[in-house]
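Request: Have a read of the protein record below and say how the chain folds.
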Amino acid sequence: MSVTQVAEMFDCSDSTVMSLIHRKELPAVRVGRRCYRILRPHAVAHLASRLTVEPGLTPH
């Protein structure tokens, strides 16, 4: 699962997902220069409440 896919799941920005990766709250491996692959997509589910949702958007 890619950063963009996770961002779309929760209607947040890619940068929000990237900040979770950088804070080690989301397990991911680097697969390119700026590309990450999320290791355990199910781990994203309990991070949903921690994602900061952008104004005007609602989480799925």
In short: The chain has a mean pLDDT of 76. The longest strand covers residues 28-30. DSSP finds three helices and two strands in the chain.
